[in-house]
Amino acid sequence: MKKLIKNDIYWVGKIDWELRRFHGEELSTHKGSSYNSYLIKGEKTVLIDTVWLPYAKEFVENLKSEIDLNSIDYIIVNHGEVDHSGSLVELMKYIPNTPIYCTANAVKSLKGQYHQDWNFHIVKTGDKLDIGNGRELMFIEMAMLHWPDSMATYLTKDNILFSNDTFGQHLASDRLFNDLVDKCDLMSEAMKYYANIINPYAAILKKKLNEIASFNLPIEIIATSHGIIWRDRPMEIIEKYTEWCSDYQENQVSIIYDTMWNGTKTLAEKIAEGISLENPDLKVKVFNRARCDESDLIVETFKSKMIVIGSPTVGNNMIHGMAGFLNLVKEAKFRNKKAVAFGCYGWSGEAVKIINEMLRSANFEVISDGFRNQWNLDATTEELAIEFGKQIAKEV
Ligand code: FEO
């Protein structure tokens, strides 16, 4: 079902209500998502992006019910990832010669995935395509936001930025616009999307936001490729991204631990107590990693000034799940954050040192050798753990 965006511009995407994992099993999407495709039905008919492969037939059937596919003059592929390009093979069966406008890298990603030699037209930043009615599409390369092939497309006169993944959120809703949905839900999903997907490229994003600002384009609508469209004060999400890509922090410390027999759990709680005693204004959150969603923990890490990572020693190492999580933390490429390790052990006790090494390799400033406790806490070591928490609060 198509939905009107503005004038002769329609949403023709797919709402994926049941999606709970994305990028394979890597990312949680508790509230579903959508794959936003857009149709401009002007003097020229233009399709911007498609939808994920499993919905290809449904997408093309819906499109056929709206227009004669042969009337599509141009297809714009802002990004080759399968959630946006996945319906091209089905669509191009009907209109194999229709020109596809995309970046040079998108030609590589599309050919690499679909092994088709479509009628590609390579575009670069500043290139324009006249679509009649006094309107042009202007292309803006968005390399590494978040793939090398990404770009955004700006529609003049209607002042719409089709931003693809950037500014998106995994949020399924039949309310298409940001003034129609719960703002807390929206901003929380926008931050989760940013922290997990865009943050590794924060430095590139910062330059790109400045470049886009230098074009002085009036932006009335930001039409993303996932979730909700920003039409009410669209610059607000650009301002948020500017804030988020500038070493964002809240006044928070996150303690994230794994535990086998609750020794490291008890230690985590004593450390939290020490932090709160030393600085009651500092927000302390405590998470058992194994019982939390790791994509959500990446958001908590994003918000934190410091993370305190705990694991008991098992097999001369940390618990394997924590090693996987720290890999994820490293991938997120956080900057300007501190960290330290802790953990209980029975015999050899290597985990704390190994965690600290991983935190350093993930670009965290590690504030000390950490806190190790052999066997369970007693009254003396409880006090030491509380003191360790107080030291953390002083270092934040
Ligand atoms: Fe939503 Fe990078 O694809």
Question: Which keywords apply here?
Answer:
396 residues; elongated; Metallo-beta-lactamase, Chain A; binds MU-OXO-diiron; 23% strand; six-stranded parallel β-sheet; Rossmann fold; seven-stranded mixed β-sheet; alpha/beta
Could you walk me through the main structural features you see in this protein, from its secondary elements to its overall organization?
It is a single chain. By secondary structure, the chain is α/β, with parallel strands linked by helices. It has two domains: 3-244, Metallo-beta-lactamase, Chain A, CATH 3.60.15.10; 254-395, Flavodoxin domain (Rossmann fold, 3-Layer(aba) Sandwich). The protein contains twelve helices and 22 strands. It has helices at residues 56-66, 82-85, 88-92, 104-114, 183-198, 202-214, 235-244, 263-278, 294-303, 320-332, 351-361, 379-395, and strands at residues 3-6, 9-11, 14-16, 21-22, 27-28, 33-35, 38-41, 45-48, 72-76, 100-102, 120-122, 128-132, 135-141, 151-155, 160-164, 221-224, 252-257, 283-288, 306-310, 338-345, 365-366, 371-374. Strands 1-2-7-8-9-10-11 form a seven-stranded mixed beta sheet. Helix 6 (202-214) runs antiparallel to helix 7 (235-244), helix 8 (263-278) packs across helix 12 (379-395) and helix 10 (320-332) runs parallel beside helix 11 (351-361). Residues 79, 81, 83-84, 146-147, 165, 225-226 line the site of MU-OXO-diiron.
